[in-house]
Write a structure and sequence with these properties.
Shape: elongated
Number of helices: 9
Helix content: 40-55%
Order of helices and strands: HHHEHEEEEHEEEHHHH
Strand content: 15-25%
Low-confidence stretches: none
Radius of gyration: 27 Å
Bound molecules: zinc ion
Length: 273
């Protein structure tokens, strides 16, 4: 694929992301999720320790009032710590000068203290009721000939690929030398996800690339997947995924990196097809 074509496609992707982010559907989705509370780092740890697969949590009443969902009977809550303030009367000693002598006097005062109490929250899987808006990224299985050569190319790079049963929203991840793909995806989706994860392997697993923000890392990986998809005529709605990540980064800043990796993958597939 020519550099000119890559540039054109990246501009096109950028436009599509902007359009997606200003769509009603996306705004509705964001509005829904903004109703969830941002938990402190400590509480996130507490939640993950008790329920590693938790994805959306809220208190018993919040599920009812904000989301019209109910905690199912018999579900055990996840304990977190909520700060609260309380007032208490304390006696302090105050120094006073009376006729040239310093004396200490007891003064009663009301003081405010901060403490924590345990409260319970519940994961979405423990509740039922109104539907949770989904941000689906499904791709029709229209390309059946690209997966095999792409898998062979991945092996040639020294990266092993494993297909596992993952929760639905998780398509795959890269672990450095190893890529895990959700086995439930169809072959075309597997190509798209594998290209994304290979880009992570090639661009983000070495030490000198540490420190890139999540926004940049996801934009680079998905742009590679988008270019590979375009080349092999796969209709990959990358803008849906990237709408969740893009803030202000200009894709063109990563042109060289994205271009190199996509060309490598495309040529790798072509050689093995
Ligand atoms: Zn990624």
């Amino acid at each position: 694929m020519s550099k000119k074509k890559v540039k054109e496609l990246l501009k096109e992707l950028d436009k599509r992301i902007d359009k997606m982010q200003s769509s009603k559907e996306f705004k509705k989705y964001l509005k829904f999720f903004s109703k969830f509370h941002d938990y402190s780092y400590r509480n996130i740890l507490l939640i993950k320790m008790q329920r590693p697969d938790a994805s959306l949590v809220a208190g018993y009443k919040q599920w009812q009032e904000k989301f019209n969902r109910h905690v199912k009977k018999g579900e055990e809550g996840i304990m977190i710590l909520a700060p609260y303030k309380y007032k208490k009367k304390v006696t302090e000693l105050k120094k006073e000068t009376v006729e040239g002598n310093i004396i200490e006097k007891e003064v009663k005062k009301e003081k405010e203290f901060l403490s924590f109490r345990s409260v319970y929250v519940f994961d979405v899987s423990q509740t039922k009721g109104d539907a949770i808006p989904a941000w689906d990224i499904e791709i029709k299985n229209e390309n059946k000939k690209t997966l095999k050569p792409l898998l062979n190319f991945t092996n040639k790079l020294g990266i092993t690929v494993e297909f596992k049963s993952l929760r639905e929203a998780l398509k795959g991840y890269s672990k450095g030398g190893k890529i895990i793909i959700n086995g439930k995806l169809n072959d075309t989706e597997k190509v798209v996800v594998l290209a994304h994860e290979i880009a992570h392997e090639m661009l983000h697993q070495s030490n000198d690339d540490q420190g890139l923000t999540k926004e940049i890392v996801e934009l680079e990986a998905e742009a590679v997947s988008f270019l590979v998809s375009e080349y092999f005529n796969i209709d990959n709605p990358s803008e849906r995924y990237l709408a969740l990540y893009k803030k202000s980064y200009n894709l063109m800043k990563s042109f060289k990196r994205i271009n190199e990796v996509s060309q490598d993958i495309i040529n790798g597939i072509l050689e093995l097809i």
